[in-house]
Design goal:
The chain is α/β, with parallel strands linked by helices. It folds into 3 domains: 2-199 and 399-406, no CATH class; 216-355, no CATH class; 441-690, no CATH class. 35% of the residues lie in helices and 19% in strands. The chain contains 22 helices and 25 strands. A 6-stranded antiparallel β-sheet has the order 2-1-4-5-6-7. Helix 18 packs antiparallel against helix 20. It is globular. The relative contact order is 0.09.
Length: 690
């Protein structure tokens, strides 16, 4: 049995979401404040500890609750807002049907899944209103001193008036029917089906016995007490402490060897680092209860170091390994009414871990789990694992289809073009993503080729696209190197957003279109006109050449206009794509003031256009010039064009010279306009404003 799907309604940002779970690991990703942690916390509240707060209700439901408090109308219990979780389990009916019988409404149906709905709802709306009115009686003008939601935020009020209720779920061809369950029966059934455990993000790894810190020695002690065979302590232990400590040291070495071997296989410490050694100290009666020390051992020098003498990343990794092992063994070793399935949530495991360890983290966790299951003679007893992360390195090691993307969005019923504060989230399954973008000319992208490209690109570049508010797709190294300073100059508010920059060349921007549209991430494409002369075997030519066309495949994909002249004269609105989610920035004529009034130059590449926009700085050699200027518009135009296309021109050196200069250079207008558009699309939705 496995959890196959969870639906959440009216819960924090997750106003109405459906999250599919993989049989093994499921990875939650998304920008900050997108609801990843809330999705895991929901399991804790509904299944482990129903300590709900009023602010666990979605923002839109708070206003409904407050309206009820001010209204004189009676409200039926079904109309009062409730927080809901639907849990769906995939089952093997030949093995597990008896355990889920209470969840089956139609026993004649051939079932491979069952569901249960849990609602946190008001017990008696009338009683709630009466108590609220007594606490905050109406003023002379009919208003009240505080809202009903404030009343419910006071200690004890919410838990006194709200409780969990349960329903079995029946899926028909047209709808999902809910049938009430007795609470005691429902809790008993849920307890027999699933166990939920958490490795929280706030692990507070430390070397001191502070109130909110965790020493590894203490973690080993807990693991020993809960999961390993205990040593028999001699009656003479108090007289011969040293002798008993030696015996216990041997005992710990024997019984912890399996766990130590697994930890050793994690890659930390490396072959050149110290090894781990667990010893007993002081009285054996309270062995491992505050009187043990974890040492780091150098076997060659026979030199031991205390726990404090190793890095937080190593401690964090070991602590997570111990916790996962502990939870897993607790489930396996449950002798009476063991739940059929377990899910362990690990929040932000990347804390303090270097990138190589992050990349192998998931595979190492599975090593721990599978070894424990095999050692227990129950190889099939493996949990599901849910991971929330902001690490592109962890994501590198995950199959594309196992990713769940949390996308910030507006509340239901709000106009996305009017409302800028994103108070809700959607959850998108990458297993459901299929690239199928069509170019402006009607050509269909090859789905398999595009998907394979995206997977390989994101793995090779440690792409952080899934954690970003917006994306910039640039053609080359020069644009990427200068982009941070161009943002500072022209769109400084973008520095408040989480921006990812993808270097995709001139041919591959189109392959990101369907993914970015699927994720709903606004993006700017910065590319070049790349003019060629169709009358001269499509050789490179100056962009103002009569009849010139573009050779840029991205422009061909986005716009069915091969003519360079037509492309360069497109309006701002015409440069938008993907239903306004994308702005394609490419060269447009530049007015150059150093020549006769109204003189323009049109670049075919970024470097060429950059010189036109900053020609005075290059003429005065305040920026290193690769051109010999003679003062005439035509000659200088041609000189710049030829210098940039020459085989001796070094793009990266050009970019580094500009980047290191203190001269007040200007961003080419086509890029400046694109950055300002992206700034307007993202600045209102950054974490400071959400």
């Amino acid at each position: 049995m496995k959890i196959s799907k969870v639906c959440l309604r009216n819960y924090r940002r997750l106003e109405d979401v459906e999250i599919d779970f993989e049989p093994e690991e499921t990875v939650f990703v998304g920008p900050n404040n997108s609801g990843k942690t809330s999705a895991t916390t929901a399991f804790r509240l509904f299944l482990n500890n129903p300590d709900f707060k009023i602010h666990d209700f979605s923002v839109s439901k708070i206003s409904i609750i407050d309206t009820f408090g001010f209204s004189d109308d009676e409200v039926d219990i079904v109309d009062f807002p409730s927080i809901e979780m639907d849990l769906w389990f995939s089952i093997n009916p030949e093995v597990e049907f008896g355990s889920v019988f209470s969840l089956v409404s139609n026993v004649s149906a051939l079932l491979d899944k069952v569901g249960i709905r849990i609602k946190y709802r008001v017990k008696d709306p009338t009683k709630l209103k009466t108590e609220y009115s007594s606490f905050y009686p109406p003023q002379d003008d009919g208003s009240r001193k505080k809202s009903l939601s404030h009343f419910l935020s006071l200690p004890g009020n919410l838990s006194r008036h709200f409780s969990l209720v349960y329903f079995t779920l029946e899926e028909t061809a047209d709808e999902i029917l809910a049938h009430p369950m007795e609470p005691d029966e429902a809790k008993k059934t849920l307890g027999s089906l699933v166990r939920i455990d958490f490795v929280d993000a706030q692990r507070n790894i430390d070397d001191h016995e502070a109130a909110r810190s965790n020493r590894l020695s203490t973690a080993f002690a807990t693991f020993y007490k809960k999961n390993l065979q205990q040593a028999e302590v001699s009656e003479a232990a108090n007289q011969v402490i040293d002798e008993n400590n030696e015996n216990l040291n041997k005992h710990y070495k024997e019984h912890f060897q399996g766990l130590m071997d697994v930890i050793g296989s994690l890659g930390v410490p490396s072959v050149n680092d110290r090894q781990l050694k667990l010893i007993s100290s002081l009285t054996p009666e309270v062995a491992l209860q505050g009187n043990t020390s974890l040492l780091y051992v150098d076997p060659d020098l026979n030199h031991d170091l205390p726990e404090a003498y190793n890095g937080l990343g190593f401690k964090n990794l070991i602590f997570m390994a111990i916790q996962v092992s502990h939870y897993h063994l607790q489930w396996i070793n449950t002798e009476v009414k063991r739940p059929f399935c377990q899910i362990i949530f690990i929040e932000e495991p990347e804390a303090h871990l270097h990138s190589q360890v992050q990349q192998t983290f998931i595979s190492n966790i599975w090593k721990i789990v599978r070894k424990a299951a095999e050692d227990s003679k129950e190889p099939g007893m493996v949990p599901q694992i849910g991971i929330t992360t902001h690490s592109s390195h962890i994501l590198d090691a995950v199959e594309f289809g196992k990713v769940r993307y949390f996308k910030r969005c507006v509340l239901a019923g709000e106009n996305e073009k009017v409302v800028k504060t994103l108070n809700a989230s959607k959850v998108l399954s990458l297993r459901g993503f299929k690239p199928s973008s069509t170019s402006a000319s009607g050509e269909l992208e090859n789905e398999v080729v595009t998907l394979n490209f995206l997977k390989k690109y994101m793995k090779l570049t440690h792409c952080d696209l899934f954690f970003s508010d917006a994306a910039v797709l640039v053609e080359g190294t020069v644009e990427k190197l200068l982009l941070p300073e161009m943002i500072n100059k022209d769109a400084p508010e973008l520095n408040r957003a989480y921006l990812t920059t993808l270097e995709v060349g001139g041919a591959y921007a189109s392959r990101f279109v369907s993914l970015l549209k699927f994720l709903g991430i606004p993006y700017l494409v910065i590319t070049d006109l790349d003019s060629v002369n169709p009358a001269d075997n499509r050789k490179t030519c100056r962009a103002d050449t009569n009849g010139a066309v573009t050779s840029n495949s991205s422009l061909k994909f986005f716009f069915n206009k091969p003519s360079v002249q037509e492309l360069s004269l497109m309006t701002e609105e015409e440069r938008l794509h993907s239903e306004g989610l994308c702005y394609v920035a490419f060269q447009q004529p530049t007015v150059v003031d150093d020549y006769e009034a109204g003189s323009t130059m049109l670049g075919r590449t970024f470097e060429e256009t950059f010189i036109y926009h900053n020609i005075e700085l290059f003429k005065d050699n305040r920026l290193p010039s690769v051109v010999q200027f003679d003062g005439s518009h035509e000659d200088d135009y041609q000189a710049v064009y030829e210098a940039i296309r020459a085989s001796t021109f070094k793009k990266t050196e050009f970019a580094l010279d500009v980047a290191s200069s203190y001269e007040p250079w200007a961003t080419p207008s086509y890029i400046s306009n694109g950055l300002k558009w992206l700034e307007a699309m993202t600045c209102a939705n950054t974490p400071e404003n959400v």
